[in-house]
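Internal tracking record. Fields below are filled automatically when a chain is submitted to the structure queue. Please do not edit lines marked as system-generated. If the sequence contains nonstandard residues, flag them in the REMARKS field before resubmitting.
Queue: standard
Priority: normal
Entity type: single polypeptide chain
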Amino acid sequence: MGRSPRVEHAWVVPWDRMISREHFDVSYENGCLRIQCLQTRNPIYYKDKREDAFQLPAGGEFRI
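SYSTEM-GENERATED OUTPUT FOLLOWS
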């Protein structure tokens, strides 16, 4: 996911300048989304803690 990711079928968020061109990867593992940050200039926060990688259960949320 990012403003202009180079990966086919990526989620594109062109309107948010705080998101990098390729900000994070999303995959599905063990019933959860796996979030992997690809850069650190604008970090991702999960449960109010800066995280580079985490599993997001159904109903979970995170912040960039």
